[in-house]
Amino acid sequence: MITLQEIKKSFLVSLWFMFLTFPIMVIKVNTIEQTIEWRWWWMAAVGLGAFVLSFFWRIAIARKEAGKKKAEVSGEEKIALIPRLMSNPRFYIPGLVATVALVVIFPFVFSMYQTNILITALIYVVVGLGLNIVVGLAGLLDLGYVAFYAVGAYSYALLNYHFGVTFWMALPIGALLAFLFGIMLGFPVLRLRGDYLAIVTLGFGEIIRLVLENWNAFSFGPSGIANIPKPGLFGLKLSLQQSSIFIYFVMIGLALMTIFVVRRLQDSRIGRAWIALREDEVACQAMGIDKTRTKLSAFAMGATWAGMGGVVFAAKTTFINPTSFTIWESVIILCVVVLGGMGSILGVIIGALVLILLPEYLRAFSEYRMLVFGALLVMMMVFRPGGIVSGVRRIYKFEGLQNKVDS
């Protein structure tokens, strides 16, 4: 319900914004003619825009709180739209058929630019699902995840440069090296949690990047490594467009394999141990779960997919250097997991597609596209803090005794 108090608060917000933006939006100084132009209509536009946005924001927040209170009173848990549609065969079977058809014909219908964007999004799907094991399932905040991504990329680039190792040989090697680096990171942080764990993993990621940037004899330093071969197809010589299409289908296969393996891990004994570790570490250990092995397995398995994603990234770009693996890459991958929904496989897939494709398709807004993108992320985190597709908490009911009594 709209009240006079809400209107008054929005009016005060608009006055505050007009005061803050007055020197920038209203006063325009011409240094050549030494004149000052007073743009009062800009101040009116800022005030009106701030009032409207604040007013509708307060209405949305009030409706959200009212819906939350109503759900608490009724005691019913609202099921998200996407999981509800997926549980209905009338919707998910035609949707699955349409999705498969679109995936198959996509590189042949759309341009190579669109195909390359989607390849990048699929790389983030694979890497995001790997981080989802660490953050979403095990609850371990990892801000240095890009280090494993860099290990996979540089393993392919260096092995190919020195020994002529092909893409298909480097793919498992990169995964294995990232697996080992995941164990190396896991050992020092076994006793850490929360912010301390995030700081240590952040430092690990920066150490890897600085080593790659300064050890010129090993990694060629800031110059990077160029002419990295793209994946081959039985020795055939592929054109640039054909190579992009082939990498696209390689990533489709790798993404499907990742989804299958992560889903099986999530439903396995080790997956339930990860979830128990996320919910309560002390209770998890008290129940007899080996905390050391559980944490190490989470870091190692999560790093494995980052290593494979790094190999594909190096093959796709044919050039890598340390600037491709900064802290912001870890932040983007973490945003994929959080925005999509921690612990949700479908949510991570949708989150990766949104975070990678949306900035590209907002290029029509020119310099305002990142502002629009940031505003959408803020709104998403305020109104859906659980992500686009929240992980569904499983409920187990024992009905055997009741059935015997009824019979």
What does this structure look like?
The chain folds into two domains: 4-74, no CATH class; 110-383, no CATH class. Helices cover 73% and strands 2% of the residues. The chain is built from 17 helices and two strands. Strands 1-2 form a two-stranded antiparallel ribbon. A hairpin with a 4-residue loop joins strand 1 (27-30) and strand 2. The chain is globular, with a radius of gyration of 25 Å. The N and C termini lie far apart (52 Å). 32% of the residues are buried. The mean pLDDT is 82.
Fold blueprint:
Elements: H1 4-26, E1 27-30, E2 35-38, H2 40-74, H3 81-86, H4 89-109, H5 112-137, H6 146-163, H7 167-186, H8 195-214, H9 216-219, H10 240-267, H11 269-279, H12 281-286, H13 291-317, H14 327-340, H15 345-361, H16 369-383, H17 400-406
Antiparallel strand pairs: 1-2
Task: Provide key terms for this protein.
407 residues; mainly alpha; 2 domains; two-stranded antiparallel sheet; 2 strands
**H/E series, N to C?**
HEEHHHHHHHHHHHHHHHH
Please report the number of helical segments: 17
Identify low-pLDDT runs. Answer: none
Compute the number of strand runs: 2
* Rounded average pLDDT: 82
End-to-end C-alpha gap = 52 Å
Radius of gyration: 25 Å
Main sheet characteristics? 2 strands, antiparallel
- Helix content class: over 70%
How much of the sequence lies in strands comes to under 5%
Kindly report the spatial arrangement of strands forming the biggest sheet: 1-2
Shape: globular
Q: Please, how many domains?
A: 2
Structural category is: mainly alpha
